[in-house]
TrEMBL record:
<keyword id="KW-0418">Kinase</keyword>
<feature type="binding site">
    <location>
        <position position="162"/>
    </location>
    <ligand>
        <name>substrate</name>
    </ligand>
</feature>
<dbReference type="InterPro" id="IPR022953">
    <property type="entry name" value="ATP_PFK"/>
</dbReference>
<dbReference type="GO" id="GO:0003872">
    <property type="term" value="F:6-phosphofructokinase activity"/>
</dbReference>
<dbReference type="InterPro" id="IPR015912">
    <property type="entry name" value="Phosphofructokinase_CS"/>
</dbReference>
<keyword id="KW-0324">Glycolysis</keyword>
<feature type="site" description="Important for catalytic activity; stabilizes the transition state when the phosphoryl donor is PPi">
    <location>
        <position position="124"/>
    </location>
</feature>
<dbReference type="InterPro" id="IPR000023">
    <property type="entry name" value="Phosphofructokinase_dom"/>
</dbReference>
<comment type="similarity">
    <text>Belongs to the phosphofructokinase type A (PFKA) family. Mixed-substrate PFK group III subfamily.</text>
</comment>
<feature type="domain" description="Phosphofructokinase">
    <location>
        <begin position="2"/>
        <end position="297"/>
    </location>
</feature>
<dbReference type="GO" id="GO:0061621">
    <property type="term" value="P:canonical glycolysis"/>
</dbReference>
<dbReference type="GO" id="GO:0016208">
    <property type="term" value="F:AMP binding"/>
</dbReference>
<dbReference type="InterPro" id="IPR012003">
    <property type="entry name" value="ATP_PFK_prok-type"/>
</dbReference>
<dbReference type="GO" id="GO:0005524">
    <property type="term" value="F:ATP binding"/>
</dbReference>
<dbReference type="GO" id="GO:0046872">
    <property type="term" value="F:metal ion binding"/>
</dbReference>
<comment type="subunit">
    <text>Homodimer or homotetramer.</text>
</comment>
<dbReference type="InterPro" id="IPR035966">
    <property type="entry name" value="PKF_sf"/>
</dbReference>
Length: 341
């Protein structure tokens, strides 16, 4: 078989581990040829390919980013995008496509499958917000990076008796905020799922100062103050209609200073959370996803996505991958809330 593979959407530590596993098992065990499409869905639309060989995936297991490049291209928003994509697949005699991505990339994969394109999906996002899998790779790395940042910020916050607000990624789901906040012992954790009261945040901040410790507040970029709206970095939307979030950390630090009279600073972790080498957990999960994805292709089990359920890798329908987002349940947030202040 000739198998195409692409990585779409925001990059994520572990993508190269998937590519390596797909290529190694695809070539050595199944005798497939593996063709990489560059820059997400732009690759099959504009005929940007690169062969993936045993040599080209040598030494990439621990490398962050993706050797194929990525983009947020939506072929359904490009003029004759799907027609061009199908023609390119035909020209390269592609028998199957593996799409590695989050809800947007997999949403396109699902639509293409409905139009007869043989696709298998692999879930990826540092946000861990895909409901059909227990975990996505990249999340563990992002949580480690954010936790290390909290540990470092704590010592400087305490030296200067300041409140430090740490803004982490998480557009609709607060998993990175919740896990890094718990792991780093944050005094307040704010997630997009629960609108927050600035007054209550300030009470917790003051309580913490009373105990002679400086508070750390972890806030997801998509968190919203009660009665307010998400704070945007710019008004632009990408090809999937997403706005660019960012700014809640600085806004909240200013509010805390104004209301409590305590000095506050904000740190926006941004893309640092997506960069660099994946943790061992992410390398293992990404590798297992890759090994199972190439098996699904070989079995002709198209329209499916590999997913983690407990400790097993299973196949689920692609439509389940995008049906609903996995957000932080109220009771999980309540579990953490007892430690605030
Ligand atoms: O991949 C998802 C995500 O990490 C979101 O949390 C964030 O809003 C977005 O990516 C930002 O990505 P970019 O700046 O690459 O568009």
């Amino acid at each position: 078989m000739r198998v195409g593979v692409l990585t779409g959407g925001g990059d994520c530590p572990g993508l190269n581990a998937v590519l390596r596993a797909v290529t190694r098992k695809g070539i050595s065990v199944h005798q497939h040829e593996i063709i990489g499409f560059r820059n997400g869905w732009l690759g099959p639309v504009e005929d940007l390919t690169t062969p993936l060989t045993l040599d080209s995936v040598e030494d990439i297991l621990n490398r962050g980013g993706t050797i194929l490049g990525s983009s947020r291209t939506n072929p359904y928003k490009v003029e004759d995008g799907v027609g061009r994509l199908k023609a390119v697949l035909q020209r390269h005699r592609i028998d199957a496509l593996i799409a590695i991505g989050g809800e947007d990339t997999l949403g396109v994969a699902e639509q293409l499958f409905a139009e007869g394109v043989p696709v298998v999906g692999v879930p990826k996002t540092i946000d861990n917000d895909l409901d059909a899998t227990d975990y996505t790779f990249g999340f563990d790395t992002a949580v480690h990076i954010a936790t290390e940042a909290i540990d470092r910020l704590r010592t400087t916050a305490e030296s200067h008796h300041r409140a430090l607000v740490v803004e982490v990624m998480g557009r609709h789901a607060g998993w990175i905020a919740l896990h890094s906040g718990l792991a780093g012992g944050a005094n307040v954790i704010l997630v997009p799922e629960q609108p927050f009261s600035v007054e209550k945040v300030c009470d917790w901040v003051e309580r913490r100062f009373q105990r002679q410790y400086a508070p750390i507040i972890v806030v997801a970029e998509g968190a919203v103050p009660e009665g307010g709206e998400a704070i945007l970095a710019t008004g632009e939307r990408d090809a999937f209609g997403h706005v660019r979030l960012g700014g809640v950390g600085n806004w909240l630090a200013d509010e805390i200073s104004r209301r409590t009279g305590k000095e506050s600073r904000a740190v926006v972790l941004g893309h640092v959370q997506r960069g660099g080498t994946p943790t061992a957990y992410d390398r293992v999960l990404a590798t297992r996803f890759g090994l199972h994805a190439i098996d699904a292709v070989t079995d002709g089990d198209f329209g499916t996505m590999v997913a983690l359920r407990g400790t097993e890798i299973v196949r689920v329908p692609l439509r389940d991958a995008t049906a609903s987002l996995k957000t932080v349940p109220v009771e999980r947030y309540a579990e953490a809330e007892v430690l605030f202040g």
